[in-house]
């Protein structure tokens, strides 16, 4: 079922984390931040919205790195219920798609809860001080890329890198809901 992200509470500090990465490291918030900001992407392997966006996500992460903005992907889905989102499959996807950013496993789902993540893919853009300036979508595409779609995330992060402030107009992310473990 498609889920839309709520509006972001701009100015909130990025919650800290320490999570295993697909490359064998453990990454913290400070490890992944860039000098000018950070994009935190809640994503997974199985979601068709993520699959459709992956080429653009990889491209934008490379472009953002050139602006001094770090990127990190976090998978918080329940891998017991969704085996394609297992850590082993995350490792394979990161290698296959040559992710230019760490892909982290939030097995306990505490990081997704701390951020208030609702769907995949969902993008949180932070300034150099790790204060939230953007929460929303990559662009207007959904399960199928929209030709010529405005690069909303890139433009927002470029503005944040230059001014420290995100755009006034921000559109919610739309994708698969986070697959929470049943209690």
Automatic annotation (TrEMBL):
Keywords, comma-separated and alphabetical: Oxidoreductase, Peroxidase
Start and end residues of each Thioredoxin domain: 8-166
EC class: oxidoreductase
InterPro entries for this protein: AhpC/TSA, PRX-like1, Thioredoxin-like_sf, Thioredoxin_domain
Enzyme Commission number(s) from the entry: 1.11.1.15
A Gene Ontology molecular function term of the record: peroxidase activity
UniProt cross-references to PROSITE patterns, sorted A to Z: THIOREDOXIN_2 (PS51352)
Keyword Oxidoreductase among record annotations: yes
PANTHER family: OS07G0260300 PROTEIN, THIOREDOXIN-DEPENDENT PEROXIREDOXIN
Protein name as annotated: Peroxiredoxin bcp
Record organism: Caballeronia humi
């Amino acid at each position: 079922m498609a889920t839309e992200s709520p509006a972001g509470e701009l100015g909130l500090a990025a919650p800290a984390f320490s999570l295993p990465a697909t490359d064998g490291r453990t990454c913290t918030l400070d490890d992944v931040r860039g000098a000018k900001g950070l994009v935190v992407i809640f994503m997974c392997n199985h979601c068709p919205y993520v699959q459709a966006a992956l080429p653009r996500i990889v491209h934008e992460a490379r472009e953002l790195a050139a602006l001094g903005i770090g990127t990190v992907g976090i998978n918080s889905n329940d891998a017991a219920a969704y085996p394609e989102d297992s850590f082993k499959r995350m490792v394979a996807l990161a290698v296959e798609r040559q992710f230019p950013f760490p892909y982290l496993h939030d097995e306990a789902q505490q990081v997704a809860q701390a951020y208030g993540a609702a769907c995949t893919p969902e993008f949180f853009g932070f300034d150099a001080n790790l204060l939230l300036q953007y929460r929303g979508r990559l662009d207007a595409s959904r399960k199928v890329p929209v030709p010529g779609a405005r690069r909303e995330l890139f433009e927002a992060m470029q503005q944040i890198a230059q001014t420290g402030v995100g755009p006034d107009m921000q559109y919610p992310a739309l994708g698969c809901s986070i697959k929470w473990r049943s209690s």
